[in-house]
Amino acid sequence: MTTMMERPHAVDGWTVGDLEHFPDDGLRYELVDGALLVTPAPLGPHQDAVLGLALLLGPKTPEDLKLYIAPRDWQPDDRTSFQPDVFVIRREHDQAAPITAPLSLAIEVLSRSTRRTDQALKYSTYAEHGVASYWIVDPVEPSIVAYDLVDGAYVEVGRAAGDQSVTLTQPFEVTVTPKALVSA
């Protein structure tokens, strides 16, 4: 088994090629501009929300789109690799290798260890790489904030908390009730 001590040290930053040398140890290894992000396996409320989103979005996903849940790599360049908790791509961009095309939708479910990364770093990186819609879901205080990319920047298009519902139209129409996501 490879350990961190046996891995080469990235002097000029990590690349997606370096990720092949990391162990399958339950940790999530992601890159942003060559910086390595390592997070622990998610806890129950996080996974409840991911399952709730998959159950909600799956039947509504049009045939020309494909729904994925993590772990599935999205690598828009050689120094960026994310595993969005849930994402949607155009079916024509699906491939056996990591996804490189812009996503139609990326959803990150907040956890204690990823909150700041999801709300700031991933928010700006997704916008920079043309991800059409970005949703941030909080499973602890059930809520959702949704953004659509307009002229290269995210614009808030909806939010809801608890038993409130919000209808979002991109990449397809769906009504989300945050509390229902965590009680799936």
TrEMBL record:
Transmembrane segments: none annotated. Residues 18-173 form the Putative restriction endonuclease domain. This is Endonuclease, Uma2 family (Restriction endonuclease fold). It holds the Pfam family Uma2. CDD domains: DUF820-like. Keywords: Endonuclease, Hydrolase, Nuclease. GO terms for molecular function: endonuclease activity. The keyword NAD does not apply. It comes from Jiangella alkaliphila.
